[in-house]
Model the fold of this input.
Amino acid sequence: MFPICKKEVRQFFSSLTGIIALAVFLLLNGLFLFVFPDTNVFDFGYASMEKFFELAPWILTFLVPAITMRSLAEEFKGGNYEILLTKPISAAQLVGGKYLGALIIVLLALLPTVIYVFAVQAVSADNAGIDTGGTIGSYIGLLFLAAVFTAIGIFCSSFTNNAVVAFIISAFACFLLYTGFNAISRIPALSGGADYYIEMLGIDFHYRSISRGVIDSRDIIYFITIILFFLLFTKRNLITRKP
Done:
């Protein structure tokens, strides 16, 4: 599993496209946080990373699919999957290696954003600065969100040998699972009854819950369950593709 993980990371960073994707992610977040009107910290009135944690999930819905789209699709297209079948590697090890490699890349993309915390703290006009507890909780929520999106991306990549198709399906799936249940819960006919429980099924509900700085075991269990669900079905897809 770990050789597959290392190969995944090495291949991504050996490609100019991968480096550009990470650079665009950091650039967009920086522009929204410090430059663009209505979202930058200077217009917000006080030192806070709130806008970053509101915008980052939307950017991740495109960044993560860009990272995962080639994970399995390229293996199918290049005929490498058939070669892998001859190796002493199980489907679970292949999925685990691909997932871990993609997740490491996503985490490496998020790591430089810690600089934003120090930058916001530096421009703070008051002595209190940013809410450290809330910021840490929000980062934990963002890490879980990235882990879920990565599992969805690997799952979508297991359906096709076309990386572009995998990107489109993955981006749509991440967007739908992040906002879909919340949108359905706002239907007037569901208000005052099932709306809360429908909203609880969505990723956005649990991400916002952790982002408040309170680590609830129900949110952790939810994220882990979703990750395992998509990884198990990815494994099943690989098994069904065996000749």
Q: What stands out?
A: The first helix runs from residue 2 to 13.
